[in-house]
Write a structure and sequence with these properties.
By secondary structure, this protein is an alpha/beta fold. It is built from 19 helices and 15 strands. It has an eight-stranded mixed β-sheet, with helices on both faces. It has a seven-stranded mixed β-sheet with strand order 13-12-11-14-10-9-15, with helices on both faces.
């Protein structure tokens, strides 16, 4: 057994080392490819496993992971075995591919991962191309009834965009990865709309004046039937009533989840799923059912400690507003990747908070000294590691009965924190 674990750990490390990945190289260096030729060839070699089950395809700047998880939980409540493919993982590589059944989830056995890795040649492929093919194959092996597939980046050129889904969904749009997707909301929306397919219904989170015409044009161009979630919800009184009754019951308690909930309810309606008690109960227990972490998640109560993976200005604006709304003294552990737009983020950061700055243990992190200098004017300290920053923030917060510790700014910073807590603390959602 120990040998199997050692083999697994070694081969996952080799996967990262040999194939360009966002974690190690960022979105450059081959991790993000212009074109789908590589994944299409890999998919053909695997026997196009995604064609063996219907798929729902979800793109967007923020919220797509939560929407995918809510949908998977809801669909599993109807008796379906639902594949769920998301990224990145926080602690365990296998988090990227899950099967949701009833009120629980299953990840691949380590032996299955090893088998999937060696099913076909992966020479010349990126990390994400490989993991996408592996997930599609595992879902076929396990004979899922359907799968919910999250894009990695963008949509048009994302490796997941080889599928023809039964429903395409685009969640909120924001300025992120502008060097790859475009320097305007309209250009980014056009990339996300690249997942629209002929004859397939397409649902967009809201009728934003900046992007609505882009989505209409792309839908007309490819022959997709387009719906905007806000308009659709307004035309379905039952959805409006559910939005009011469920918003405070979700175990995903970020304020931004109200928007995601509306999108999910509209998607289920478009799929012909009756929004009964079983479905809504599953949505409310989504985090527990699917194992979703780090979406406004409370990982401790003494001191109150919250972590969230929101990392761009659109997400952090909502998170910092909700944090202020708690009315507590804020102790913020913060770190970012070097490609983040700190000029857009800094004005959103609560000036009254104390900041504990650190760089996650990956090469893409912004050096903590540079981060310290960039955040001049804030009450801040720099630390040599995420662990030491969290420890000091919590130590200081324990002396303050009115404190809240917030950990965020980067998926990878949060992942290091969760890895530390997972073995010693039971987590709960607030």
């Amino acid at each position: 057994m120990k040998q199997d674990i050692n083999t697994y750990d070694r081969q996952i490390e080799e996967l990262f080392e040999r194939h360009p990945s966002v974690q190690r190289q960022g979105f450059g260096g081959g991790a993000y490819k212009e074109g789908l030729d590589g994944i299409r060839a890999y998919d053909r070699a695997l026997g196009s496993p995604w064609q063996k089950y219907p798929c729902i395809h979800v793109a967007g700047t923020n919220g797509k992971g939560s929407v995918c998880s809510m949908l998977s939980a809801a669909l599993s409540s109807r008796g379906a075995s639902v594949g769920l493919y998301t990224s990145p993982h926080l602690v365990d590589f296998r988090e990227r591919m899950k099967i949701i059944r009833g009120a629980s989830f299953l990840m691949p056995e380590k032996s299955e991962i090893l088998s999937l890795l060696h099913r076909q040649s992966t020479e010349g492929l990126s990390f994400f191309e490989i993991t996408t093919g592996m997930a599609f194959s595992w879902f076929a092996d396990r004979k899922v009834d359907l799968a919910v597939i999250e894009t990695g980046l963008g949509g048009r050129l994302d490796s997941t965009n080889i599928i023809t889904p039964c429903l395409s969904i685009v969640t909120s749009i924001g300025l992120d990865h502008c060097d790859l997707l475009g320097d305007s909301i309209e250009k980014i929306a056009a990339e996300k709309a690249g997942i629209f397919k002929r004859g397939v219904k397409a649902l967009v989170y809201g009728n934003d004046p900046l992007t609505a015409e882009v989505f209409r044009s792309k839908a007309a161009e490819c022959g997709a039937e387009l719906y905007f979630a806000d308009h659709y919800a307004d035309s379905r009184p039952e959805i409006g009533l559910l939005l009011e009754s469920l918003a405070g019951k979700l175990d995903l308690q970020g304020e931004y989840q109200k928007q995601n909930l509306r999108t999910v309810l509209c998607a289920l309606s478009l799929l012909g799923i009756k929004l009964d008690g079983d479905v809504t109960d599953a949505i409310c227990r989504c985090a527990r059912i699917t194992g979703l972490h780090a979406r406004w998640e409370q990982i401790d109560s003494s001191p109150l400690t919250i972590c969230d993976i929101g990392h761009n200005s659109a997400a952090l604006e909502k998170n910092f507003a909700q944090l202020r709304g708690l009315g507590r003294n804020m102790y913020i552990v913060y770190g970012v990747m070097a490609d983040k737009d700190l000029e857009a983020i800094k004005p959103l950061m609560p000036r009254e908070a104390k900041y504990y700055l650190a760089a996650p243990r990956i090469s893409r992190s912004l050096d903590v000294g540079k981060l310290y200098n960039a955040l001049e004017g804030l009450d801040r300290r720099a630390f040599p590691s995420v662990e030491s920053a969290v420890a000091q923030a919590r130590e200081d917060a324990l002396k303050d009965p009115d404190a809240v510790v917030y950990i965020g700014g980067s998926n990878y910073l949060v992942a290091e924190c969760i890895s530390e807590y997972r073995t010693s603390n039971a987590t709960e959602q607030i």
